[in-house]
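Hi there. Long-time user, first ticket. I'm pasting a complex I've been working with (about 227 residues overall). I'd like to know whether the download I got is complete or cut off, because the file seemed smaller than I expected. Thanks.
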Amino acid sequence: GDSVTQMEGPVTLSEEAFLTINCTYTATGYPSLFWYVQYPGEGLQLLLKATKADDKGSNKGFEATYRKETTSFHLEKGSVQVSDSAVYFCALTSNQAGTALIFGKGTTLSVSS
Amino acid sequence: DGGITQSPKYLFRKEGQNVTLSCEQNLNHDAMYWYRQDPGQGLRLIYYSQIVNDFQKGDIAEGYSVSREKKESFPLTVTSAQKNPTAFYLCASSNAAGGVETQYFGPGTRLLVL
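Hi, the file is complete. Here it is re-exported in full:
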C-alpha cells in the first residue's frame, strides 16, 4: 500500500541555519503531497502542498518540490528561527474523494538561539 | 471564523467507562476524519465519513465508534473495549471541491486513563 517515510529526528539546529527534512513516498497513481506542522499541544496546521510532479509548494519561507522521478518531497528552509521549533509531518493522499491522509512518523525540529 | 472545534481539550476515562469526544466544523466540508496520535508513531486513521449517515473504518477502528447524523458533527466514542486509549485524538475535515482535497485539523483532545 501507499506509504511515507521521513528522516528520523530530532533535528537540532542553530538559528539562521539551513534546514532540510527528507521525505520519500510510495504510491500508485499520482498522489498529492503535503507538509503539516504541529506545535506543542496543538493540532496540525497545513504548511504547504503540491498536487503534481514538479510543483513547488511554499509558505512562510518553507519550500518543497514534488519530484516524481525520485518519489520525494523534501522540506527546506534557508534560515530557521526559534519559532520554527515543532514537529513536521509529510503526508500524501491519493486524490480520491474522501480518502484519508497517509502520514510519515514526523520529524521533531529544535532550533536554539 | 470558520474552523474545526474539538472538546474537551483534556478528558479522563475510568476503567470500563465509555467516553465521547466532540468534533464540530463550520467549513461546510463533506468529509470528516478521526486520527489517533501516539508518540513516535505519527497519525493513524480510526474512522472517516464522506457524507452524512455514512462512515467507514480506518486502520485502527477496534474499540471505537462514531456517528454522522449532521454534516457539521462527527463525534467519536472510545468504548471500554479499547484497552489502551491514552493518546492525542485529532479530528479533521476536507472538501474535494476543485479536485484536490486538503484536510484541516482541529486542536485535538488528549485522553488520559485514571
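A couple of notes from our side: Chain A touches chain B at residues 32, 34, 36, 41-46, 49, 51, 89, 93, 95, 97-101, 103-106 (CB under 8 Å). The longest strand of chain A covers residues 86-93.
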